[in-house]
Specification:
232 residues; alpha/beta; Rossmann fold; four-stranded antiparallel beta sheet; globular
């Protein structure tokens, strides 16, 4: 891990996001404060349209807040160039989406290795070995040579999780990672995520509609009227 245990992995301060819709202004986020510690697992729940995905995009530096700041491993994302932001994401962040976003023309192994191949100091051989290790951790060693179309929905999502974790990120952001899966497969993915977070000491922020899963995390927060409040 890149992050010493005595500092926050991610912190956002007074984060706001306002969208202009014609003459109207839609205030989606109204001053979000959030601090995530090393190896902490945080769930964010909320109704559709409450701004959960918008918040994840801001935390990743994929969108700009209207005000406030995001600090990722001591780096203020809004104060570095887009190229530096990309490098920070590659080294410190992993992503898992509801729809896996695997590249269809590449095998599971190649998809998982992709983030490491973007690093100049990592050889193809090193990236391949690490990708093989991660596929083993998610139980897909025997499916490494298969392309996404040859995998089940649950297998594709496990490949996406392996890809998110292959670079040993400090934090993984997940946007409804099991929302497109049947309950049995979703349960298996939940168990896998918990196991991997414990083994790799990676922090997680997971947006989910599944309250059972949310309550299994270290903290569960609800995004409501533009604010994060504890789930009780």
């Amino acid at each position: 891990m890149n992050n010493p245990e005595n500092r926050a992995v991610l912190e956002c301060r007074r984060l706001t996001k306002v969208f202009a819709e014609g003459p109207e202004k839609l205030k989606v986020l109204r001053g979000i404060d959030l601090l995530v510690s090393p190896a902490e697992r945080v769930a964010i729940v909320g109704t559709s349209g409450s701004g959960k995905t918008t918040l994840l995009q801001l935390l990743a530096g994929l969108d700009h807040p209207s005000s406030g700041e995001v600090i990722l491993c001591d780096h203020q994302l809004m104060k570095v160039s887009e190229q530096q932001q990309g490098e920070l994401r590659n080294r410190h962040l992993g992503f898992v989406y509801q729809f896996h976003h695997l590249l269809p023309e590449f095998t599971a192994l190649e998809n998982v290795a992709m983030p490491l191949l973007l690093r100049k100091e990592v050889s193809v051989g090193q990236a391949t070995m690490r990708a093989e290790e991660m596929l083993g951790m998610v139980g897909l060693s025997k499916r490494a040579s298969h392309k996404p179309a040859e995998l089940s929905g649950g297998e594709r999502q496990r490949v996406a999780i392996a890809r998110a974790l292959v670079g040993s990120p400090d934090l993984v952001l997940m946007d409804e990672p099991t929302g497109n899966l049947d309950p049995h497969t979703a349960s298996k993915i939940h168990e896998l995520m918990k196991s991997l977070s414990e083994q790799l000491t990676t922090s997680f922020i997971v947006v989910t509609h599944d309250m059972v899963f949310a309550r299994q995390m270290d903290r569960a927060l609800r995004l409501e009227d533009g604010h994060l409040v504890p789930v009780v």
